[in-house]
Design a protein that fits this description.
alpha/beta, Arc Repressor Mutant, subunit A, three-stranded antiparallel sheet, about 10% strand
């Protein structure tokens, strides 16, 4: 039995979950799983072909790798085995991802609700100690929100949090905070003498060279999952709440989460845990067995291919290009492909790509060009601008992205900065004022005024408002700065609350950093 938190991790990040789920649904939905070795091997091969699992000679032919990925989906409340038939079904959360809902929003909800005990944690081969009754990621957010803690390192999570945070009482929370503070002063000296005996690995062994590795590997995965929620980010080995997500985080931790009961009853637990954000109850009647037809198989292939594509590029609508790509990928009839895509994804699926876009905003120069290209595509496909990517030239005389609004007769300047705390230096101030704004004719052929300038970054320094005002006052053009989190929120809102180019200009001309309350005014 494991005497610390545990999450399974065939992959340490959750970015590939939608594709893993789609591959699983394509082969195993409405099929029996237990004892079906051929199905397990087929799923393993499908994961390898899709690039989701590393290819290589398998030590055995039992499909163990496939079962690990299947357990991953179970642990996150996306699938379950129907008690009456033994067949695999999607939870409502799993259905939501397959239907094109934002995987970030669905999985964020599942991560925050993740609990010990669960159907997964009490299951055979896992068996997390029954002393734990806690929502681990809620607890981590509460620690990060406490000013005495502020951040967490991998070592702190590994050696203290996952071993000691066994419930959500104030007494337990304060004990963990106190031990964290002590650890920052005294290091491993403040750990129990019998630490390795109490918190040994599942194999019962201690790696003499890296004795904490089983716990630090776990901590690294927990940090990755928490980052996926887009509430926190790791920098220089420390994970902390993003500045523009503090209000949201405070709302999340303001009330304890309810525990799903009866973890020993797999179907009951999974259907309650696996509720997506749009539902409060799973009232589906799954008693009727469905005969799997060739058409149903083709539909799953179409969905699988579409989800894989939607994670790599923003898809606002089902175009001829998208249909042609899915047809070429799946070999399914073009008419059926178009009908299914239009029926299942009438508004495309922007949310899947937002995971990638969020990460681009924190990678410095590593993915700077990709960040610029993605921004160009979003303003073009989602907001309907004539958007031109100029950043690939590497020239300091042109901005990263130039926008043109034909409907409202203005152009706009976007500068992407893939940093978590971007500040406008003197050089960057001059570049915006003199190169981009004053000399706009050097790179733009549009004969319309500049409606606004804006910076998009992972986050901004404390002086960003003053710096934006300074540029605006000198250049006589209004501007702004917007975090990638709020940019994602704007993109997601566009489907339900479309904003015109005039609205966009009003929002981006506040002469300071754009905050969520600005969205309400426009």
């Amino acid at each position: 039995m494991l005497n610390y938190w545990w999450v399974t991790r065939p992959k340490r990040k959750l970015n590939s979950i939608p594709e893993v789920l789609a591959s699983f649904a394509n082969l195993s939905l409405n099929q029996e799983w237990e004892g079906q070795r051929d199905s397990h091997l087929a799923y393993e091969s499908a994961l390898e072909e899709a690039g989701l699992k590393r290819k290589g000679e398998r030590r055995d032919q039992t499909g163990g790798g496939a079962r690990t990925y299947k357990a991953w989906l179970v642990s996150l409340g996306l699938i379950f085995s129907q008690e009456s038939t033994g067949k695999i079904k999607l939870t409502l959360a799993g259905e939501a991802i397959m239907n094109g809902d934002s995987p970030v929003e669905v999985l964020k909800d599942q991560i925050l609700k993740y609990q010990f005990p669960s159907s997964f944690s009490v299951g055979r081969g896992v068996q997390v100690s029954d002393r734990f009754k806690v929502h681990p990621f809620w607890f981590l957010l509460k620690l990060l929100s406490d000013e005495r803690v502020g951040y967490l390192t991998e070592d702190e999570i590994a050696k203290i949090v996952v071993t000691e945070a066994e419930n959500e009482s104030n007494k337990c929370f304060e004990a963990v905070v106190t031990h964290l503070i002590d650890y920052r002063s005294y290091g491993d000296k403040c750990l129990d003498e019998d630490f390795f005996e109490k918190y040994k690995s599942s194999k019962g062994e201690v790696n003499p060279e890296h004795p904490f590795s089983h716990l630090t590997d776990l901590a690294n995965t927990l940090m990755n999952w928490l980052e996926y929620t887009q509430l926190a980010k790791r920098e220089e080995g420390k994970i902390a709440i993003l500045d523009d997500k503090r209000d949201e985080t405070n709302r999340i931790i303001s009330e304890p989460l309810k525990f799903v009961d009866r973890p020993e009853q797999h179907e009951y637990f999974q259907r309650k845990y696996g509720l997506d954000p749009k539902h409060k109850k799973d009232s589906r009647n799954l008693a009727l067995t469905q005969t799997v037809t060739a058409r149903m198989i083709d539909i799953q292939k179409i969905k699988q291919a579409f989800i894989a594509l939607s994670l790599k590029r923003p898809i606002k609508r089902i175009s001829t290009e998208v249909v042609d790509y899915i047809v070429s990928t799946t070999g399914v009839d073009g008419k059926l492909t178009e009908d299914i895509l239009v029926e299942c994804y009438p508004h495309g699926a922007i949310g899947g790509f937002m995971t990638e876009y969020f990460e681009m905003a924190f990678k410095g120069t590593e993915e700077a060009v990709q960040f610029e290209v993605a921004t160009t595509e979003l303003f073009k496909d989602v907001f309907g601008f004539n958007a031109i990517h100029l950043g690939q030239t590497g020239s300091k005389s042109a901005p990263d992205v130039l926008l043109l609004s034909d409907s409202d007769g203005y152009q706009a300047i976007i500068d992407n900065k893939a940093y978590s705390k971007y500040s406008i230096s003197g050089d960057h101030h001059n570049r915006m004022v003199h190169n981009y704004i004053e000399n706009v004719r050097n790179y733009s052929s549009f004969d319309v005024p500049i409606g606004f300038f804006t910076y998009i970054a992972g986050g901004f320094g404390n002086q960003i408002d003053r710096q934006i005002k300074s540029i605006s006052a000198e250049a006589y053009v209004h501007g702004s700065a917007i975090t990638v989190s709020n940019m994602i929120k704007l993109v997601e809102e566009q489907e339900n609350k479309p904003r015109t180019h005039a609205n966009i200009r009003d929002l981006f001309t506040v002469d300071r950093q754009i905050v969520l309350s600005d969205f309400m005014k426009i």
